[in-house]
Amino acid sequence: MKYLISFLLALGLYAGYAQQPQSLLFKSHAERLLLMQPFYHNFLWTADSISIFNKIDSVRQLAIAHKDDDLLMEAHMMYVHYFFYRPNLGHELLAAKLDSLQQQAVEQKRLWAEILAENLKSFFNFDVLHNYEAAFVHKHRVYQLIKNISPADFPYKQACLTQTAHNYYVFRDYRECLFFNKEALAAEPSIRLEAYPTRLGILNTMGICYQQMNMPDSSDYYFRETYNLADKLNIPVWKGISSGNLGHNYFLRKAYDKAEPLLLYDVKEARAIADWGLASGSLMVLANISLIRKDFAKARQQIMEARGYVYRSGQYRRLKDLYPLLCKLYTAENQPGLAAVYLDSALFVTDSVTRQTNALLMLRAEQRAHKAQYDAEIAAVQNRRHINILQRNGLIGFVFLLLLVSLWVFREQTKKQQRQEEDIKRAEKELKMFARNIAEKNEIISLLREQSETDAHDTVEQLKQSTILTEEDWEYFCALFDKVHTGYLHRVKKKLPDLTPAEVRFVVLSRLQLSLQEMAAMLGINQPSVRKTRSRLKKKLDIDMEDDASLDKLVADI
Q1: What pLDDT score was predicted for residue 241?
Q2: Are the beta carbons of 273 and 285 closer than 8 angstroms?
Q3: CA angle, residues 479, 481, 484, in degrees to nearest 5
Q4: CA atoms within 13 A on the CB side of 36
Q5: Which of 164, 248, 354, 411 is the most buried (most CB within 10 A)?
Q6: CA–CA separation, 246 vs 208, rounded Å?
Q7: Cα dist. 182→206, 343, 516 in Å?
Q8: Are 473 and 493 in contact (CB under 8 A)?
Q9: What is the per-residue pLDDT for 422?
């Protein structure tokens, strides 16, 4: 969980922590947060391993000495973070430590630690293992844990929500991204956790989402909100970013006069902080405007400057916008050879970026399918276990009942032997009881008959919905079929021994009165193949090719 925090702030807080370790005692996670920030955001990255473990051990010993279990959990969290930021030590080791942290947090009912453990698991799967589906599962668990917690009790709530939104943004799921970002706007912490307010990034991302969803008015609103907040806080870089995005919206509307000054401002601020990728983006939009205005000299200067910035940034995806501009420029300058070269390059880069995006989406789809299969297998195992328990309990119950009945019978027999002078009234009472038992059994028999008819109907429906693609499917189908039409398959083989397996299947499916289309769907073949089997069967049975009724009667009479 890496946040951008200023180095001086980290050093200052760390100095206070180092001088007053007692200040960590008996505080809630929220109260302890600022004191612990320097360790997580500076010391953990810059110090050597021995110093880091000494610091963790000092916190652990302090917690043990004063019996502060929550601080002891913090020491465990510090220890796991050391391995989290050093995945080269082994993925299996880190996974085991994350599981241990989460289990301990759940057992001790320390919600803040459980949330952070789940969040770390999400990061681990998303950024290290690239198991995106598992990462989303952990993110959803995080959301369920934090959605009813106030930011005062858990200041990282906004950060967790924006991280979830970012994951959806990577997969271009803009609606889900907007949902979590809106939740994040309402989870503003009372303390600053980053160098710049998280709200700036949230508002800007929401503007981009609406831009991608072709909702320009909503996009404009959030870009303006970003600019107004950056202006209020006097953060020029964010003023430039939001101006450039708003200018791009005006460009898309062909309002070039409004777009140009906003884009120029973004380029100026991006140059000031040497963010060449950001500068190239707005420069390329400006170059597009110049080309539209047929100011080719200005367009050339802007495109060449943008090309230099793209190469300096190392952001390959920006070539997708640069190469089409170069193609347009050389076309306008009547240099068809160069125009053709950059057209090919533009197509290649676009195809490459599209393949990368599709590969990412395909990977997640495959992971989702594997997870669904795994969940189904787990559910099947649990169902089998549940059935085994029921069967075991049923068997135990039956044995116990049999024992009780045996004891009762033995007792009655003993009584009968011991009491031979029973009066007539007792005999009549027993006779009435016997008659009532017979009536109840008759009711049970009637009920079982009704259920049997229902089961037979259900079995027929199941037969009609079967799919026969393998021999295993056919054996399963035959077992079901024999429940409804007992002995039919045996009679078919006895009466028509020369039939091929395909013809036997046709006869059986015909007995269910299925259409050719339904037969084809069940067998996984086309209808002409089914017709061909029927024709061969008629020929073999010496039935006229146009006489379907005779074939149906033969099938029904077997």
Answers
A1: 96
A2: no
A3: 115
A4: 20
A5: 164
A6: 10
A7: 8, 41, 55
A8: no
A9: 61
Domain membership flag for residue 207:
no
Q: What is the pLDDT of residue 368?
A: 83
Regarding whether 507 and 446 lie in a shared domain, the answer is no
Count of CB atoms situated within 10 Å of the CB of 270: 23
Helices marked H in 48-131 — which ranges?
49-65, 69-84, 91-107, 111-123
pLDDT score recorded for residue 200: 95
Structure tokens of 201?
């990034």
Q: Which pLDDT score is estimated for 98?
A: 94
The angle subtended at Cα 17 by Cα 11 and Cα 18, nearest 5°, is: 85
> What pLDDT sits at residue 470?
77
> 184: domain range?
1-195
228: in domain: no
51 and 121 share a domain?
yes
CA-to-CA separations, 236 to 22, 283, 464, in angstroms, rounded: 40, 18, 70
The number of folded domains in the chain is 3
- 21-66 pLDDT, tens digit per residue, is 688 999 999 999 888 988 988 899 889 999 999 999 999 999 999 9
Which residue do the tokens 């009491």 mark? 419
Q: How far is CA 172 from CA 126, 168, 175, 205, 277, in A?
A: 15, 6, 9, 12, 21
Q: Pick out the chain residues at pLDDT < 70.
A: 1-21, 195, 419-469
